[in-house]
Predict the 3D structure of the following.
Amino acid sequence: QCIEAALQKHHAAHLADELGQKEDFSFHVAVANATRNSYMADLLRFLGPFIIPANGMRQMDRQELPAYRDSLRAEHSAIADAIKQGDAPAAGKEMRKHLRRGLQFNSGAS
């Protein structure tokens, strides 16, 4: 439920033409909580929402932003769906793919 609520809030932020950095962070915290790995959840909360880099989105051409947001939503949905299905390996795979793409995007790599 928390993961789904975080997904909806993140999507609403994008619909409101916001970057959704805080909402993206909330999604990641909800996922960490779902893993029952208190260390990871505590670490995320300690680091705060600034670990979600938004520089790439700020610098993105306004015409490219909707497609990027759609891909971000699809990645988050794939993670959430795997968790809902109780498929930990798939959830981990989707999260690693999401984080890798985010690192590439925000470092300027293609």
User: Anything to note?
Assistant: The radius of gyration is 13 Å.
